[in-house]
Amino acid sequence: MVTGLVGPNGAGKSTLLRLLAGIDSPDAGDVTFDGTPLHALAPSARARRVAHLPQSAQAQWPLSGRDVVSLGRLPHGAGFDRLSEADVQAVARAMSRTGTTAFAGRRLDHLSAGERARLLLARALATEADVLLVDEPTAALDPAYQLEAMTALRGEADRGVAVAVALHDLALAARFCDRLILLAGGKVLRHGAAAQVLTPALLEAAYGVAFELVVLGDRRLPVPIARSGPTGDER
Ligand SMILES: Nc1ncnc2c1ncn2[C@@H]1O[C@H](COP(=O)(O)OP(=O)(O)OP(=O)(O)O)[C@@H](O)[C@H]1O
């Protein structure tokens, strides 16, 4: 299942992902994993089961692409000079699924922002966690790699991984997510299938922008037309 988190800047998408990853703790309520409170899991066990890729990770490390992706195996006890056969295979699979195999020998800090973003997505995939939390993975990517990244996330979901992804691109959200959660002002406005969530009225309420729906095959994709509500601080 791919769950998309959509909503305007400051809606709470990243905050929700950080809570789900156990990076932040909720002021109220609890996050549970298979019935166990997340904070009751040892950090290493949590890291093996829940992978989190933060927004626009600005990593500029002088590491090879392969070493960067290998970092995703740390929760499994791996080190750069201590990779099991399972680690090596997981790293190779993640690089293949993100189209980053060609960067295996390139230094991360010598790559473009989009190329780095793809390697960092590969690092998250390499963990082979049960839950994959990804914050705006397509922001730095050109259209071809946006599709490739979303296809990679869909592939993970088809293998049984629970994927939650924050997205600003509503067309990608409509096409690749099984269900969407529309957030605004820290609250859920609606959750459900794309057709139920991405209505012009709800989107206008969330973003202060008038939307029209464009028909693509059996889907209706929202296109922003013009601002209709308050801006920035007024929102
Ligand atoms: N570390 C923090 N300390 C205090 N407030 C924060 C912190 N991080 C985020 N916030 C606030 O929490 C709210 C939600 O922020 P969050 O980053 O979750 O939004 P978002 O939906 O991911 O936005 P964007 O689309 O801009 O990335 C915002 O008002 C933000 O200013």
UniProtKB/TrEMBL annotation:
The entry's family comment says: Belongs to the ABC transporter superfamily.
* The protein, known as: ABC transporter ATP-binding protein
GO terms assigned for molecular function: ATP binding; ATP hydrolysis activity
Record bears the keyword Transmembrane: no
Protein's UniProt keywords contain GTP-binding: no
Do you know which SMART domains this protein is assigned to? AAA
What does this protein's UniProt record list under function? Part of the ABC transporter complex HmuTUV involved in hemin import. Responsible for energy coupling to the transport system.
> Gene3D superfamilies given for it?
P-loop containing nucleotide triphosphate hydrolases
Q: Which domain of life is it from?
A: Bacteria
Q: Which residues form the ABC transporter domain?
A: 1-210
- Recite the UniProt keywords alphabetically: ATP-binding, Nucleotide-binding, Translocase, Transport
The cross-references to Pfam families, in alphabetical order and at most eight, read: ABC_tran (PF00005)
